[in-house]
Specification:
The complex is a heterodimer of chains A (118) and B (132).
Chain A: H1 13-40, H2 46-54, H3 56-84, H4 88-114
Helix pairs in contact in A: 1-3, 3-4
Chain B: H1 25-57, H2 59-69, H3 72-99, H4 106-131
Helix pairs in contact in B: 1-2, 1-3, 1-4, 3-4
The chains are: A mainly alpha (118), B mainly alpha (132).
Chain lengths: 118, 132
């Protein structure tokens, strides 16, 4: 039995709307966490900074922040392209470039957080 | 324009002429949200990653980064990023509240857009005072 048939639309709108908000809240919480750490310690010197990133929990939180940031950036930048860039070919090229850059940033993040340091 | 004079098909804006649009306060907050987001994407994310990388590499590179960031021009750029982040942050919280149907009437929506502009600028000022 066909209960609901949809003929038009890409249907990513509601999901992206929700993702944009969930990622925003995650980033806000991480921002407040880092701010609280800085205020609590009266600033952050190199030793404290190093010890922070030595903690697995902080690395994971930072990784989550970056994933949220990059996904959030993708939705936002794609929305800007959809509003202002009308030629389809150019828009596709810009979107591909954006995704490439964002995925590269994710690789950079992983390297920073878990990379082997000489 | 009266209801009778109004054409059957209401003319819709078919393009966004950024020069001709006169924005109300919530519209100013909205376009600044977009501009600040674009700035953060284009410049702040790579700088953040490069900065975290340099700050973690060694005590020397941490100090070098600190020295670089103490240059007046660098401080000015950092202040710009601080404003972009803070405005995006505050405007984002306003949108989350609007999504929860808090303050969606015209008057409170205008008030909250002023609050966003003022609070983000005030917080930027605090960052500026700490930078200098």
């Amino acid at each position: 039995m066909v209960t609901r048939r949809q003929a038009v639309g890409a249907h990513y709108g509601l999901k992206d709307w929700l993702v944009q908000r969930v990622t925003a809240v995650l980033m806000a919480l991480y921002t407040l966490l880092v701010l609280a750490i800085a205020l609590w310690n009266g600033g952050i010197d190199h030793a404290l900074w190093k010890s922070l990133f030595a903690s697995g929990a902080f690395r994971l939180a930072s990784f989550l922040f970056m994933v949220a940031l990059l996904y959030h950036a993708w939705i936002g930048v794609r929305d800007i392209f959809m509003d202002y860039i009308k030629p389809v070919g150019l828009r596709l090229a810009l979107e591909v470039a954006t995704v490439a850059v964002l995925v590269a940033y994710l690789g950079w993040t992983i390297q920073l957080l878990w990379g082997v340091k000489a | 324009m009266s209801a009778i004079e109004r054409p059957v098909v209401k003319p819709r804006p078919v393009y966004l002429n950024l020069v001709k649009i006169r924005l109300p306060l919530p519209g100013i907050v909205s376009i600044l949200h977009r501009v600040s987001g674009a700035v953060l994407f284009l410049f702040a994310i790579p700088l953040l990653l490069a900065g975290v990388g340099a700050s973690l590499a060694s005590a020397e590179s941490f100090a070098a980064l600190k020295g670089f960031a103490s240059h007046p021009l660098a401080k000015l750029v950092l202040l710009g990023f601080a404003w972009a982040y803070l405005h995006h942050f505050c405007a984002g919280i306003r949108y989350l509240l609007l999504d929860l149907h808090k303050g969606i009437e015209l008057a409170p929506a205008r008030q909250s857009s002023v609050v966003v502009l003022v609070v983000s600028l005030a917080l930027t000022l605090i960052v500026g005072v700490r930078l200098w």
